[in-house]
Amino acid sequence: MSIPPGLLARRTSELPRQLWHLGGLMSIRVTAGDTDGALSVVEQRAQRGYATPPHVHSREDETLVVLEGELEYTVGERSGVLRAGESAFLPRHKAHRFAVVSDRAHYLMLITPGGFEEMFQVVSSPATEERLPSADDVQVHTDPAVMAAESAARGATIFRDDPAERARHLHLLATSVGTTDSYRYLAQLVAGPIPVPADVIDGLVVAAQRIPDDPGHARALILLGILAESRAEAVSPRIPEILASLGPSLSSPVALALAYLGAHFREHSAALLDLLRDLPPEDLQRLQRCLATVSPSLIGRSWPTPALWELSAEEQETDRQWRESGAWDAATVQAIWDAETTAILAFMGARADHYVERNARV
To answer: 154 with 181, same domain?
Structure first.
């Protein structure tokens, strides 16, 4: 989706084209109004320390072309460094960022379709000279809140992390009840595209240890389970202290949340299965499947609900023949196993979240 070209022609062509933006010099060489909405070309010069906040576009793609210097960039899970003569494609719907890592850099940004350059024109100060701004230049600082709002109006989301606000919510989780808003705030961080600060994991573990007094903190287990997808090495060492704090008697919402978290960690299988042995059969079997060693004999139509969907002897034989005829190699078995596990984990997480939201006092 793009802004109507006629509107762009009236707006982007008439606004200032030479700007001081985030401490750099931005020259808008081609606007959407010049190209009937097809393309915008932005030239930038900046020095070390210039950086964009992590953000994602819903309407346009961006392409960086480095003319001088070096840019460090991240798009999705991929990172790299661009040098003179190199380029990187930053597609819509994928979070990305970039920063100048050389003393100075000179580069182009191509925006397709055009139109987002209007955000720069609205939030940045016109450059009185074609040079980088200095500390003596007035009105060269861009308000992050204004930039976030103007970006949102154009279909882009800027992700910001406020350490003070984060610390406030973590303190509430450690000391208070009625912390639904705090969990919502942390859920946005956990599910967002930017790396999750280590103190969030610490805070969620502290909250999980409060479950015996307030079962609503089972939400912490669900968020830790989501984090396990990308930060398993940081979450796994904390599982024993969480288990030690819970005690032998768990309510259904807490047990389901713990099963979802624990299903990511085969190394803790024995302790998890012992604590969760009273789960309903269908939930226990999902957990056992996620914690099991990869085996072709467990691949078939009965997961993730074998306790509810029992195959007849004939159906079991059909599955056996299907597996045998596939003659799968180890890589194929692993790929099928991982895909099934992902589906089971998604179901377990959704089920746990539903039960916690319906039954928690927090």
So the answer is: no
Q: How far apart are CA 188 and CA 166, in angstroms?
A: 11
Q: Which domain range does residue 136 map to?
A: 5-158
CB atoms within 10 A of CB 304: 21
| CB-CB contact of 195 with 333 (8 Å) | no
Between the CA of residue 135 and those of 32, 83, 101, 138, 314, what are the distances in Å?
32, 28, 20, 8, 79
Q: What's the whole-model pTM score?
A: 0.65
Q: Is the pLDDT of residue 13 over 70?
A: no
In total, how many domains does the chain have? 2
148: CATH: 2.60.120.10
List pLDDT tens digits, range 68-122: 999 999 887 788 999 999 999 999 988 898 999 999 999 999 999 999 999 888 8
Contact 69, 176 (CB under 8 A): no
Say yes or no: 33 and 70 in one domain.
yes
